[in-house]
Amino acid sequence: MDERTSTHPAVSAIDFYRLIRGQIEHEDNLITQRLSWFLASQAFLFSAFAIVLNAPLQSRFGDRVQIVFFKLIPIIAIAVGLLIWLAIWGGILAMRRLRVMLHARSDLADFPMIQGPRHTRWMGLGAPVFLPPVFAAVWAALLFVG
User: Structure pTM?
Assistant: First the structure.
């Protein structure tokens, strides 16, 4: 066991459990915030895309600017989505590491599970894990169809 997963003998089982639980709750809250950022950014970019799509062909800037925006908005949306998706996966991996640290302590075997069984954890992570690739696919379709 390396020093990152070893425990200090002065930390009681209940204190260690509470510490890990607090850190997992923090990471879970960050995932929720990141999903909110993602949805807000996508809503904003879809609105901008709809405005560009419905703008008159002859704007005061010319149709070249409209064409640039028509291509640029999906690229920005995909990039933002991928960056936020990466941050979501960072939170998922951090929570996994914390659960591994918790399970490494044999004196915590009788404590309740912090996040429940694996299948319910993954069901709860369905939206943060799968929404970004779904939106990326939609944006890619809009980018290549247009």
Answer: 0.83
